[in-house]
Design a protein that fits this description.
Layout lengths: L3 H14 L10 E6 L6 H16 L4 E6 L4 H9 L5 E5 H9 L12 E6 L5 E6 L4 H13 L1 H7 L8 H4 L9 H10 L3
Parallel strand pairs: 1-2, 1-3
Antiparallel strand pairs: 3-5, 4-5
Helix pairs in contact: 1-3, 2-5, 5-8
Length: 185
């Protein structure tokens, strides 16, 4: 019988890989998990992927994915099926601390990239994701915040200082490198 974690992994793989073909010239495929098909997190994942592909040339092929939400994205990031996932801050804090639904199973490798809203929608990754990849994605987002702000009214108030508040997990070293260069840490 499959354990709960293994079953979630199999389900995550099926959802993420269904119809996912990497762009032909990209050297690395990047998956960013959102939420509901028309949700703000999925819209942000789509916009971030478009920016990454546009600004990084053929370095990355970025694929935004819809999904059932935070728990799914946390598990998919944890087991390496996605490089990034949008999650609710409370779920991520429970996952890091091993409390609530994560009692006894903390996600010690979870790392923060940034938040769309303090304490709410957070972009997370895993400690093992390459520093340069995380740096490139974070840099692309922050250097193009106006594009995100104009994508949806809920993103209109994005400000760097607020995007670094109330993060649920330690910063990923690639994100920390960019923020340090900006003098934000």
């Amino acid at each position: 019988m499959l354990t709960r974690r293994a079953a979630l992994g199999v389900a995550a793989a099926a959802v993420l890989l269904a119809g996912a073909a990497p762009p032909a010239l990209a050297t690395q495929t990047v998956l960013i998990g959102g939420g509901a098909a028309e949700g703000v997190e999925t819209l942000a994942a789509r916009q971030i992927c478009a920016l990454v592909e546009e600004r990084a040339g053929h370095k990355y092929g970025c694929i935004p994915r819809t999904g059932p939400g935070s728990v799914f994205n946390l598990r998919a990031v944890e087991i390496g099926l996605m490089e990034f996932g949008f999650v609710q801050g409370a779920q991520a804090r429970e996952a890091v601390s091993g409390s609530g639904a994560w009692k006894g199973e903390p996600l010690a490798s979870l790392r923060s990239a940034f938040g769309l809203h303090p304490g709410a929608a957070q972009l997370v990754t895993a400690a093992g994701v390459a520093d340069d990849l995380v740096y490139d994605v974070v840099r692309t987002v922050f250097e193009n915040l106006d594009v995100l702000r104009n994508a949806h009214p809920a993103l209109g108030g994005l400000r760097p200082a607020a995007m670094l508040q109330d993060l649920p997990a330690p910063l990923h070293p690639g994100a920390a490198r960019y923020y340090g260069e900006q003098g934000w840490l």
